[in-house]
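Z., the sequence and structure:
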Amino acid sequence: MKPLYGDSYWGIGLSQFYFGNKNELGNPFALYIFQGTRLASLGRKIQLNFEWNFGVSGGWQPYDIENNPNNKVVGSRFNAYINTGLVLNWQLSDFVSMELGSDLTHFSNGNTQYPNSGLNMVGGKLGITYKLDTRSQLPKAAQSVAEFQPHISYDVIAYGSWRKKGVEVYGSKIPSPYTYTVMGMNLSALYNFTYKFRAGLSLDPLYDGSANVYGEPIIVGPREPNPGPIIVQPPFGNRLALGLSARSELVLPVFTIGMGIGRNVLRGGKDFDGTYQVFWVKARTSKTSFIHVGYNLKDFEEANFLMLGLGFTLNNQRPD
């Protein structure tokens, strides 16, 4: 028998951010779930941890064409908060430890409002941690398990969301007044290398109601008011795609985090060209079912859409 999760931990956090520009960006706060795990022991009292945060941030001053036209970063008062980092933990006593590390932070609304350039930050961490209780947070059944047997498990996920879209007219983008539906699935086969790591391939059918929409300008007389362009939605087939992606996951108590990269092998238009990247969190509701929250990017830079869904796992041989 050996430990399954090692020094894994999780909880709920609250943070406040100051960007020095309260009138345009605000001083937002974030309420989030955090989780960490030991990557390596560097000594009897020093270890290297990986930690992620995921939650919602509020208190933003969003874009407004009249009152806040210079904010092209966020278009909504509430945005997703995503953070990952590496932390050196030095245990000073049974209850107190010092932490030093660096992290990456991303704020975005997943194109549910426009504009949505998002905000990225690179930061450092220095702090003191005090544990109120040094006992393990895990049940005894999860602390030690039999030797791992490699196997393949299968995930089936159905998700949906909504999004806004910037439409190109005469070389510049204007916001479409419509809200578009996104629906998709992930059908994944994942090889479980250890209890904590698995990777494999996924087939990703997708319907994106905003795909390949375009604007047609209206020609009017010199004294006639211009109503703006007509937003044209293409045929149904130009809103469908079928992708193939490579994926990997870090499996921890309750939560699983993952990332993948793929390409649409069948696609109905240029909006599905290039590559797509996906990042997600799964929250287990039972041994076979989970809640899925994900985020889709295009070509490592363009925000696509949120992925809010449910899923289940076949052939799950984890002990919990």
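The chain has two domains: 2-140, 149-314. The longest helix spans residues 140-143.

Let me know what you think.
H.
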